[in-house]
Amino acid sequence: MNKFSILLLSGVLASTLAACSNSRSDNDTITYPVTHQGEIVDTYFDHKVADPYRWLEDDRSEETAAWVKSQNTLTFNYLEQIPYREQLKERLSTLWNYEKVGAPFKEGKYTYFYKNDGLQNQYVVYRQKGEGAAEVFLDPNTFSEDGTTSLASLSFSKNGSIAAYAISEGGSDWRKIIIIDVETKKVLEAPLIDVKFSGISWFGNNGFYYSSYDKPKGSELSAKTDQHKLYYHELGTAQKEDKVIFGATPEQKHRYVGGQVTEDDRYLLISGAISTSGNRLFIKDLTKKDAPLVTVLEHTDSDTYVIENEGSKLFLVTNLNAPNKKIVTVDAANPTSENWVDFIAETDNVLTASTGGGYFFTEYMVDAISKVYQYDYQGKMVREIALPGVGSASSLSGKKDETTLYYSFTNYKTPSTIFSFDVKNAKTEVYRKSGAKFDSDAYVSEQVFYSSKDGTKVPMIITYKKGIERNGKNPTILYGYGGFNLSLTPRFSVTRAVWLEQGGIYAVANLRGGGEYGKKWHKAGTQLHKQNVFDDFIGAGEFLINKNYTSSDYLAVNGGSNGGLLVGAVMTQRPDLMKVALPAVGVLDMLRYHTFTAGAGWAYDYGTAEQSEEMFNYLQGYSPVHNVKTGVKYPATLVTTGDHDDRVVPAHSFKFAAELQAKQAGSAPTMIRIETNAGHGAGTPVSKTIEQYADIYGFTLFNMGFTQLPN
User: Is 680 one of the catalytic residues?
Assistant: First the structure.
């Protein structure tokens, strides 16, 4: 049994940060603020582990605020010396400045769509009747003066007469839900507050289901959230009267709970998960008063959800005994897995499924590239849908009675184009081309396969300007994630385009831990196999160097969240491999990650330090915070985080930056850029994103020795 205990807690807040004039110097040019070291020591299975920067976990203390201010002062003073920082900002702004319009969708009397005129901080929701003029329905740019309050989700009642939308303030995962009359846009009642990790699923026009946790005690930013609950809100009643539908009892305790009403209002589907992988599944017949909650799956050994129903016939997507997923059918009266019948069988490629227009659509990842097929309700394949090239197609989805659906297509060098698709005759037309002024034809995007340390073949897509010389001197960013069954598929972004324009190479490796090759690929990068992910990433860097795309002097590694962990682990294991390290909003303290917010839900991928002595030793062996060594020359590092990140709390980044600054033996800078009034990334204003990437690219090129932009 884990004998975790705190042995000593003293003097953590005994002194505030010293001024820069009293700080230490790592090299001739950079003087870092002093970061006070406390005396906390934790014990795991009789192993003592010092945690000198534990005080930085108190993200709302005056001491931490002073530290953040001093670090940002240092970082921004450094960034201001980069001669082409403003040029990068101007180019990002110029390329970003084009009209962007999303696919239309119908709700009630109106057709809605999202649009951004160019540099608006947030997308605006428009609507129109028939062929009439479009008008603004919701403008999130008016939600706050600085654009940091964003529209997180929007959901309409079944007849489209009422809308409920969630807002995020300062990038927080905690949301407010506002309910308005669609015609008048008048707010109908007091907003629902303290909503987190939630959908909004309407039952008719009378109310909706949503999810949240009890308000945590202590810091709203970092306090642990553990028991998720599903509520039903009836219009016209106070939130305090909302009924808990699921999650109120110990046997219903889950960290993630979601509720979804079927399109025909017949069933409520409830998913309960204790981790980010695997869920229990329940169903409730909403046509019968006081109908019981029926268990579909009582274990969390699979990821399973209902995608459609036809009367009492349910269609489920599952990876139970099917690592690449399949679709099965079952009657709602006897929905347990022994009664499932294959509808669309598992293949050698990973399935993503959707419905719309009376059809099923299956997207398969073939080495992370999309192939899409259309099926009828008898499970017969109607056709393969011809895509315009090699890349990623978004899901074809919509209501059952729609005749035209929409999808987008993109890759790393091609801006997204929206296509319309007639479900009956398969006629595909360009609905809206991208207005991005980027010459895709001037670039190459190639897929390669390389061998990882254990011989596993790993795919990587490398994008660069045509005619580039492989001389080992090309500035290169290697990006990765490798976790949580998430797949990195080819997608265009303005920020990447600006990097490519400078003669930069952008490489994305599809590492184990992701979902590119199904559940087996995911599990091969979890818990005691997590080192496979780091080895895959190191192998990608070595491939780029061996093939002379770049060299260690011109290689940067980048990743965010779980990808920030990836960068932190690889730069501490192989600091010689890269010139620049860019860990963003990273999970960097692997011994304590599960003690913050919903972090315990990540244990499926990581394991926890209390799980076993073997797991503790494994985690400590790669935890970035615990593997910064005195006397090592680390690459130039720009850690980025948001001061309101309540998913991967900023303490991870704070502690890692403090360790690096204290122990860096080389002259390379180790900086942290802390965005204020910002969270994990979603809803970040365009203006802040442009500034952030100008700084990231400027820092990267400057530390590769470029005195002016390469191109």
Answer: yes
